[in-house]
Task: inverse folding
């Protein structure tokens, strides 16, 4: 058993070095493809920070002063619920100060100055309002009405705050996703071709192996390992690229004025680690799949 | 050991390589397949080691129906067969020792078995002391001996030889034939395709003669004619 494993790795390494040009091309392509996949994840997550408070069809947020009395809060609640044809009372959600503070931590993740000014005590609590009506003018007129209620600090409308960002985020996500998928297919093709070349170069050896009774798996495994290595190395390279990209972005965003929203567009490092692991897994998978297909198809060289 | 029952093999739709061939080869036999180029000798060998599948008929090897065997069993069938070719099929970047060891390595034999068996078989074929040569540093006859060592190192039941003396001068060919006869004496069944009159006439073994894919003669202790 050990002899077989040692054999497989030895053969993989020999073949890997023999075909350097093709190997480098395959690795680079998978690296770029995976970098795009990772970037898609990060962009997605960054925009999510910004959009977190508008999740779940929320169109309007009523911010309640931190010093509002329980009576005032209950009045606001009733007022909102009093328009059941316009507002979905079922989905109306109240975030108290603690919950609002948790949310703020995400929104202001790249803006520590603003965050440090907030405490669970002085933060406004909020009503998240999901309208039933499709008419934005109705929602807008309601917001004017709520603004005049006692205890209300401000009313924010999704239309004003995030429609542009949301559209932009969807567009960017689609573009990067499509590009990364296309590049992944190219990467599979290149790995496939590299393996095919490697097998062609060793067709005499493969012929002899088959004649003396080596099993197809025994012949295939080194080639599959080689493809796996291509994918993994591509994954490692793209992880490096992703880290550099994210650091540069985080530094750049830190220079923006607080409160512009741009400063929310950063990604926590734990999330980055997760994305890197996913990328390594995808890389290994792409390499193994590409080479497995090639190794099976060209076993009869 | 080897039995063919009404085997027909065609390449494409026109060319008939073997037509309705039947014969029975007992364990320990030494058989020549003779006939001009393209008469179907090589195809018969390729049917026996299942490099080819017949269109009709059955091929039996060591009690197993080779055509109905699952693809995954074929490697184990081949471990019972040694193959020798006119062009040796040695791996040019491996030494004599490595070429022979390769056959054991790829069927998963551990190192200590390889280190014990390879020198024994190299001694048998008369190549002791040349373990570290590369194939290009050997004569044709020596290269063929390496290929016979590789085919025999796993002690197969059957040895299939396709024109093993085809590239060699008569004296060297005689040496190779003596070696195959010695292997045959250990109980290994030898089937050899050839169109070398001298070899066949000198050995006086069983001769199966083919003409355009048809067996026209099957004779004990025959000559080439």
Result:
């Amino acid at each position: 058993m050990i002899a077989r494993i040692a054999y497989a790795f030895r053969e993989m390494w020999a073949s890997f070095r023999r075909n350097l040009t093709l190997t480098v091309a395959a690795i680079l392509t998978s690296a770029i493809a995976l970098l795009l996949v990772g970037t898609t994840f990060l962009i997605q997550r960054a925009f999510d920070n910004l959009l977190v408070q508008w999740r779940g069809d929320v169109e309007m947020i009523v911010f309640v002063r931190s010093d509002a009395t329980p009576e005032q809060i209950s009045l606001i609640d009733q007022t909102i619920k009093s328009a059941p044809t316009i507002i979905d009372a079922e989905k109306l959600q109240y975030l108290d100060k603690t919950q609002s503070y948790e949310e703020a931590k995400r929104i202001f993740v790249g803006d520590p100055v603003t965050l440090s000014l907030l405490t669970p005590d002085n933060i406004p609590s909020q009503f998240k309002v999901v309208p039933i009506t499709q008419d934005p003018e109705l929602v807008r007129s309601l917001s004017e009405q709520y603004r005049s209620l006692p205890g209300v600090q401000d009313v924010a409308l999704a239309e004003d705050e995030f429609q542009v960002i949301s559209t932009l985020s969807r567009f960017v996500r689609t573009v990067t996703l499509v590009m990364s998928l296309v590049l992944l297919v190219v990467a599979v093709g290149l790995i496939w071709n590299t393996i095919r070349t490697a097998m062609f170069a060793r067709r005499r050896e493969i012929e002899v192996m088959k004649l003396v009774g080596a099993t197809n798996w025994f012949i295939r495994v080194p080639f599959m390992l080689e493809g796996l290595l291509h994918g993994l190395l591509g994954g490692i390279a793209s992880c490096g690229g992703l880290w550099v990209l994210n650091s540069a972005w985080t530094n750049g965003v830190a220079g923006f004025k607080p409160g512009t929203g741009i400063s929310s567009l950063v990604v926590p490092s734990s999330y980055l680690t997760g994305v890197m692991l996913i990328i390594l897994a995808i890389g290994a998978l792409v390499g193994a799949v590409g080479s497995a297909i090639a190794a099976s198809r060209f076993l009869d060289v | 050991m080897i039995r063919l029952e009404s085997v027909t093999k065609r390449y494409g739709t026109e060319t008939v390589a073997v037509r309705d061939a039947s014969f029975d080869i007992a364990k320990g036999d030494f058989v020549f397949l003779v006939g001009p180029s393209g008469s179907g000798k090589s195809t018969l060998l390729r049917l026996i080691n299942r490099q080819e599948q017949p269109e009709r008929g059955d091929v039996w090897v060591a009690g197993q129906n080779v055509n109905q065997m699952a693809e995954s069993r074929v490697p184990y069938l081949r471990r019972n067969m040694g193959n020798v070719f006119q062009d040796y099929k040695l791996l040019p970047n491996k030494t004599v020792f490595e070429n022979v060891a390769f056959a054991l390595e790829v069927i998963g034999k551990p190192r200590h078995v390889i280190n014990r068996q390879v020198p024994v078989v190299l001694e048998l074929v008369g190549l002791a002391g040349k373990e570290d040569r590369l194939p290009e540093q050997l004569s044709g006859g020596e290269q063929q001996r390496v290929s016979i060592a590789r085919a025999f190192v796993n002690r197969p039941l059957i040895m299939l030889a396709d024109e093993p003396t085809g590239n060699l001068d008569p004296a060297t060919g005689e040496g190779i034939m003596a070696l195959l006869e010695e292997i045959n004496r250990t109980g290994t069944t030898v089937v050899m395709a050839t169109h070398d009159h001298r070899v066949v006439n000198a050995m006086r073994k069983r001769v199966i003669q083919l003409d355009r894919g048809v067996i026209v003669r099957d004779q004990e202790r025959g000559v080439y004619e």
